[in-house]
Amino acid sequence: MTEYYEYARRRYAAIGVDVEAALERLAETPISIHCWQGDDVRGFETGGGELDGGIQVTGQHPGAARTPQELMADFGEAIARIPGPKRINLHAIYAVVDPDDPVGRDALRPKDFAPWVEFARRNGLGIDFNPTLFSSPYMRDGLSLSSPDDETRQYWIRHCQASRRIAAWIAEQLGDDVLCNIWIPDGLKDIPADRIGPRERLADSLDQIFAEPLDGVIDSVESKVFGIGLESYTVGSHDFYLGYALTRPGVLVLIDSGHFHPTENVADKLSSLLLFFDEIPMHVTRSVRWDSDHVLVVDNELLGIAREIVRCHALDRVRIGLDFFDGSVNRVAAWISGTRAMQKALLRALLEPNKRLREHQDAARWTELLVEQDALYSLPFGAVWDEYCRRQGVPDDWSWLADVQAYEAGVIAARS
Ligand code: RNT
Ligand code: ZN
Question: What is the pTM of this model?
């Protein structure tokens, strides 16, 4: 324990904040880290096409992982520098399929994910899962679960059913619940003539997908406001999924912080949703002008989200997952920096005197509320974060990048 930390502890104690309790709480908060930052959302399917479905990765930083071995090695480098409990969020396109026993997405089996379960066990990770309904020739006219073509729709229903069974198998293997989240890009570039038909078909598809009760699977649906090339209509809008999930026991709405209008306050949604759902799964991302999925940094939006999770006493009801992908920077560094940004925002929120501020609000002490919330920014947060990293056995913010760059020079650079 450094003198600097001791000073910080006293400084926070003076305003009623128990720093030790905050550190303990943070150390119990898992972050689900998406595997797809490591390879620009490409996955391992042979003959896989370009990324589609209205999402995009830009940047030419060399050395994206090309194989399960490379992705696992890179992910391993990242998690060694991220404090606290971690999960890995997988997508169906990251199946490790034996080339002698190929299989379509609609028939994927648990064994195709056995290497990931091994990897998770070795590294003490939980797993979350997503069926992949994009980057596929089986999408027809940009549509999957809402397609008017029955064969197309059935293919994707089977894929989601298979994915839920895989999630259940992983849950059983690890003795830990697995979030299985469905996002579809389905939408139209230009003005639709029929907005309700696709939504009727999507609701019916989801009912078929969720019909089978499965232990250990937490189901969620992820809405979106629009995608590139799909600007006029998104079948799976927030209203659609909110209504759907509220009327289907056990189905949750996943909140991706990039999937709302740019001026909408995503943090403000959490307190409402927490009143009506047991849990809120999240994809925390950073959107710059649109759903650009930039790497998380500690900005006001992130602080706002973390603050709401803490102020609503919902650290164990919000499943914090990340969703960013940037191909212009060292991808291992992106994982580390982005995940640590999430954790720093949470720690900042945990170090706020929330009871005292709430009392100011309830007593209409607006001046105190204004002044004290702003004064929080000058408290010695960095000393507490450094101490957390030290206790967790990971480097501080200024001591990990050189090692990651050495890994890049030694390992990643050899990939051509
Ligand atoms: C896309 C959604 C979705 C994907 C991942 C790869 O806009 O955010 O969650 O980013 O599933
Ligand atoms: Zn997302």
Answer: 0.98
